[in-house]
From TrEMBL:
Modified positions (4-aspartylphosphate) in chain numbering: 55
Source species: Eubacterium maltosivorans
Keywords, alphabetical: DNA-binding, Phosphoprotein, Transcription, Transcription regulation
Role description: May play the central regulatory role in sporulation. It may be an element of the effector pathway responsible for the activation of sporulation genes in response to nutritional stress. Spo0A may act in concert with spo0H (a sigma factor) to control the expression of some genes that are critical to the sporulation process.
Top-level taxon: Bacteria
Protein's name in the database: Stage 0 sporulation protein A homolog
Domain HTH araC/xylS-type: 128-226
């Protein structure tokens, strides 16, 4: 589950976000709600959430200060009224992933989530849970049995549902995620080819080269040379 916190001094905002998550069985766990920036800082430090839905204009401490004082691993989705849109633009410059305009609509909510977490939810709770697991554990061993266990399902059921909603086999998708992570590492210069392979879930360099070329049409070395 993706841990999240809501920070807004309007109870109606927390209620609608929680409703969206529960009604659509999204793999998001609201681990806390804060009504001002000071409460938010304490809650973020305690829970270490992946996502924070953050209002800008709040008592005690505003959203800008919360972002500046928080862990860089936390992703923020800004909540704002239309008249304070200029403030939201400042938040984007500070690293916010997206903006939700009040009153919040479900479509804009899911679009903001997609931009923040890097992948899109489906209309199936089991597949959403599988996707969340893959994106969180791509560097570990992943197979249908593991995914069935965490989903309280069977390997054949997982394979069927995933194909239906994602138009892909599970392992094809896993390799896609891994290679995209490796590409990011190589582009940034943070890792050598061997390090990128290990960090993205490949113990075998031969397998890494095989799937990298399948996904990109070139070898890792050629990719690095092209980007340099």
């Amino acid at each position: 589950m993706i841990k999240a916190i809501i920070v807004d001094d309007e109870p109606a905002v927390s209620e609608i976000l929680t409703f969206f998550i529960k009604k659509n069985e999204l793999p998001i766990e609201i681990v806390g709600i804060a009504e001002d920036g000071q409460e938010a800082i304490a809650l973020i430090g305690q829970e270490k959430p992946r996502l924070v839905f953050l209002d800008i204009q709040m008592p005690v401490m505003n959203g800008f200060e919360v972002m500046q004082r928080s862990n860089s691993e936390t992703d923020f989705i800004i909540i704002t009224a239309f008249e304070s849109f200029s403030y939201a633009q400042k938040a984007l410059r500070l690293g916010a992933k997206d903006i939700l305009l009040k009153p919040i609509q479900y479509e804009q909510f899911t679009e903001a989530l997609t931009r923040a977490i890097g992948w899109q939810f489906t209309g199936n709770a089991t597949v959403n849970g599988v996707l969340e697991y893959i994106h969180s554990h791509y560097a570990e061993k992943i197979d249908l049995t593991t995914l069935a266990d965490i989903s309280y399902s069977t390997p054949s059921q997982i394979a069927r549902l995933f194909k239906k909603y994602m138009d892909s086999t599970v392992m094809t998708y896993v390799h896609k995620v891994r290679i995209e992570k490796a590409m990011t590492l190589l582009e940034s210069g943070e890792a050598s080819v061997k390090e990128a392979a290990l960090l993205s879930g490949y113990e075998s360099l031969n397998n890494f080269y095989k799937y990298f070329k399948q996904h990109t049409g070139m070898t890792p070395a050629a990719f690095c040379e092209k980007k340099s």
